[in-house]
UniProtKB/TrEMBL annotation:
Lineage: Bacteria, Bacillati, Bacillota, Bacilli, Bacillales
PROSITE patterns assigned to the protein according to its UniProt record, in alphabetical order: EFP (PS01275)
GO MF annotation list: translation elongation factor activity
Family: Belongs to the elongation factor P family.
Organism, scientific name: Cytobacillus mangrovibacter
Listed name of the protein: Elongation factor P
Metabolic or biological pathway: Protein biosynthesis; polypeptide chain elongation
Predominant location: cytoplasm
Pfam family of the protein (one): Elong-fact-P_C
Amino acid sequence: MISVNDFRTGLTIEVDNGIWRVMDFQHVKPGKGAAFVRSKLRNLRNGAIQEKTFRAGEKVGKAQIDNRRMQYLYASGDQHVFMDNESYEQIELPAVSIEYELKFLKENMEVQIMMYHGETLGVELPNTVVLEVTETEPGIKGDTASGGTKPATLETGLIVQVPFFINQGDKLIINTSESSYVSRA
């Protein structure tokens, strides 16, 4: 058990028969009444996001999540196959459970698979990934003074806003939590 006063971003907890990751939290001490913790939680089983308020000092169960380093191999219909780098064991995850993560996954990419007592919860992406631009409008010389952006389609199908100087074939560093352009690779 862990006190809600010890919450930190990324902590996994068990609440209401679900496995939740703390995305954001705020300790509130009103002038009148008892202190409480307002939190934003993401369900690791279905991806739902919920805001929940706990009384200060309330205890919740801490979920022990095992991260296994695996390699994304390929898509087989509606299933996506991952291989454990040490045991070569393969697991399949349905596309609906990793819909967001698929925007960043390339074949042979290494990721962390979250496991909870043998149950596969999902894929944990690195903070940034390198993806190639497959389609974008050509930049026009002298068009960078305004600091504007244009849409670019990446090799995984993800569309991000990029600066005008980015061209087709460029490799870009993409932030996975915000689906945003960081820089050229």
